[in-house]
Design goal:
This protein has four helices and 16 strands. 16% of the residues lie in helices and 45% in strands. The protein folds into two domains: 165 residues; 114 residues, Roll (Nuclear Transport Factor 2, Chain: A). By secondary structure, it is an alpha+beta fold. The strands form three sheets. Strands 5, 6, 7, 8, 9 and 10 form a six-stranded antiparallel β-sheet that branches.
Length: 299
C-alpha cells in the first residue's frame, strides 16, 4: 500500500497523517484535512479540519465525509472496542488539543471525539453517531495555569493511554451492571411484536432472553454455490447487541419487521432494502419468548 497524502497549500492541508481503520478484513483510510482558508472567512464558522474516509481497494473510489474537528492539533488517533452489551462495538477516537489564553487561564484544552465503525453490508463506514452523548470528562479538559488562583491544573486525559484506561473502567462497570440487571428482568410481553420492540431496544432483555447456546448460521462462499455454516455460541462468544436498537437501525438504513408468527414460533427479519444484507431471528415461546437461532444470509 502506498502512503496517501492530501495537500493543497491554498485550500487544504493535513492536520494528521492518514490512518487505516479496520473491522475484520474490511478496511478504510481516514483523512484529517485542515482548512487552510479558515482565517480568511469572517461571516461564517469554519471548523479547523474535517474528517473523511475512503474504502481501501474499492472498485470505485469514493471520499466520504464524517465530521468536523474543532481543535488546532490532533494529539492522538486510536481505537477502542467496548464489550458491554449496551454499547458493544469498535470506535475510532480523536484526541484534539487547543491553546487557551485569556484572563482566567493559560495553557491547553483537550477534547475527545468518538467515531463508531459500522459494517454496511460489504462495506465499512466511519460515522458520527449522535445516539450517545460525549463523555463530559473528556471534553474541554484543561492543562495549564489557572490565573484566578495561580494554581497549575493538569488534564487527566491528554494521551491515548489515559483515555483508553478510563474507557476500559467504564466498560467494566457497565458489564457488571448489566449482569446484575439481567437477574431480575421480567418478560416484556407474551405478544411477539411488543416483545420484539423491547428486545431490540434493551440490552438487558437481550441478555436474559437469548437461549444458550445460541445457534448462529452464516452464509459462506462455496463451490459452486454459497453454503450455510452453523455454530453454537454461549457466554463471552455472544456479542451484544444482537439486534441493533432503533437509533442505530436508522443511521444504518436497516428495517426490522415480523416475518412470521405461528403458535409458539416467530421470526423477525432485519434487512437493508435493495442489498443482500439480511438477518433472520428465530424465536420460540415458553413462559416468555427466547431467541434460539440467527440466520445470516448476507454475502
Amino acid at each position: 500500500m502506498q502512503p496517501a497524502v492530501a495537500n493543497d497549500p491554498q485550500t487544504i492541508g493535513q492536520l494528521h497523517p492518514p490512518v487505516v481503520a479496520s473491522l475484520g478484513d474490511q478496511k478504510i483510510t481516514v483523512f484529517f484535512l485542515k482548512n487552510n482558508l479558515k482565517d480568511q472567512v469572517r461571516e461564517a464558522h469554519v471548523p479547523d479540519a474535517e474528517i473523511f474516509y475512503a474504502p481501501v481497494d474499492a472498485p470505485t473510489p469514493s471520499l466520504n465525509y464524517v465530521w468536523k474537528v474543532e481543535g488546532e492539533e490532533i494529539a492522538s488517533v486510536f481505537f477502542f472496542e467496548r464489550k458491554s452489551p449496551a454499547r458493544a462495538g469498535k470506535s475510532m477516537f480523536v484526541l484534539t488539543k487547543r491553546k487557551v489564553s485569556d484572563s482566567h487561564f493559560e495553557g491547553s484544552s483537550y477534547s475527545v471525539l468518538e467515531l463508531p465503525l459500522f459494517r454496511d453490508g460489504d462495506h465499512l463506514s466511519l460515522q458520527f453517531f449522535r445516539g450517545d452523548p460525549p463523555e463530559p470528562e473528556f471534553q474541554n479538559c484543561r492543562d495549564g495555569l489557572n490565573k484566578e488562583d495561580d494554581v497549575e491544573v493538569e488534564c487527566a486525559y491528554k494521551d491515548a493511554a489515559s483515555v483508553k484506561k478510563r474507557l476500559a473502567e467504564w466498560d467494566a462497570q457497565m458489564i457488571a451492571r448489566s449482569k446484575v440487571e439481567a437477574v431480575n428482568v421480567a418478560c416484556p410481553s407474551t405478544e411477539f411484536s411488543a416483545f420484539l420492540t423491547a428486545f431490540s431496544e434493551r440490552a438487558d432483555v437481550q441478555k436474559t432472553f437469548v437461549q444458550q447456546p445460541l445457534q448462529m448460521v452464516t452464509t459462506v462462499a462455496g463451490d459452486p454455490e454459497p453454503e450455510m455454516q452453523k455454530n453454537s455460541l454461549s457466554g463471552d462468544q455472544l456479542k451484544f447487541p444482537i439486534i441493533p436498537d432503533l437509533a442505530k437501525r436508522e443511521v444504518q438504513g436497516l428495517t426490522l419487521t415480523v416475518k412470521e408468527e405461528r403458535g409458539n414460533k416467530a421470526t423477525a427479519i432485519l434487512q437493508k432494502p435493495d442489498t443482500d444484507y439480511v438477518f433472520e431471528y428465530r424465536f420460540v415461546r415458553g413462559q416468555c419468548w427466547r431467541l434460539e437461532e440467527v440466520m445470516d444470509y448476507s454475502l
